Structure formats: C-alpha cells, structure tokens
Amino acid sequence: MLPKCPVCGKTMIVTQLKCQNDDVIVSGKFTVSPLAFLEEEDMKFIILFLRSKGNLKEMERITGIGYFTLRGKLDKLLNKMGLTPLEESSEETDDIFSKLKKGIISVEDALNILKKKGGEKNG
Q1: 17 DSSP β-pair partners
Q2: How far apart are CA 62 and CA 48, in angstroms?
C-alpha cells in the first residue's frame, strides 16, 4: 500500500522510479494501479478470487467462509478501489431488504447499496 501523508493523511503520489540494477532514475508523475492501494489481506483475497476464476462458491468451499460474507468482502474491495460492478442482476437489486431482514447483510451495507443505486440513477 502506498504511504499516506503524515500531515493531511491523503495518499502520496509516485514521482520517482529507480532501477536497483544500474541506478537509473526517472522522475515525473506516475499513475498507480488501484491494486497498489490494497493491504496484504485484500491482495490475498484478490489472488484467491483470481485463482478460483471469480467463483465465490469455490472460494466458499476452499475457505469455509460463507458466500454472502465473501460477496460483502468483494463489494468492499470494489468500493475501496473506486470501482463499480459492470452489471448487477435485478434479482439482487430487489433482494436488498430480504437480505437485510435475514441478517445476510448489515444495515450499513444495505444503505451503501441503496445509496449506490440512487447515484447510478441520478448520474
């Protein structure tokens, strides 16, 4: 994860790259992958997600962690990286309140989903 500014707490930008082999230095302002902002635990999740070819049911089998918990973790990672899902099924959209009622998602998760849905309609 990239360091945070000790004064304001915002993420610092990369302005210099150095080759360890021959000491060549390149200066400028470089863009960084959203993956660079993830912590080690998040990276482990992403690696397992890729190795299981995006199959959360397979991840559930391997880890013993419930499908909806894994799905929540994936949603939080997408949010942390500033990414939005390409498409969500209407079944999931209609299901928010029943998931909340059953305790599958938290009130905070439900509010975030509804807020995101409202933003998509307005944006």
Answers
A1: 26
A2: 9
Check residue 84 and give its pLDDT. 76
Please name the residues in contact with 34: beta carbons below 8 A apart, sequence gap of 6 or more. 81, 82, 83
**Triad 104, 80, 44: Cα angle to 5°:** 80
CA–CA dist 4, 16 (Å, integer): 16
Q: What is the 3-state secondary structure (H, E, C) of the chain?
A: CCCECCCCCCECCEEEEECCCCCCEEEEEECCCHHHHCCHHHHHHHHHHHHCCCCHHHHHHHHCCCHHHHHHHHHHHHHHCCCCCCCCCHHHHHCHHHHHHHCCCCHHHHHHHHHHHHHHHHC
What does the pLDDT profile of the chain (123 residues) look like in tens digits? 567 788 998 878 889 999 999 999 999 998 878 787 788 999 999 999 999 999 999 999 999 999 999 999 999 998 888 777 776 545 555 578 777 877 888 888 888 887 777 655 555
Q: CA 48 to CA 42: how far, in whole Å?
A: 10
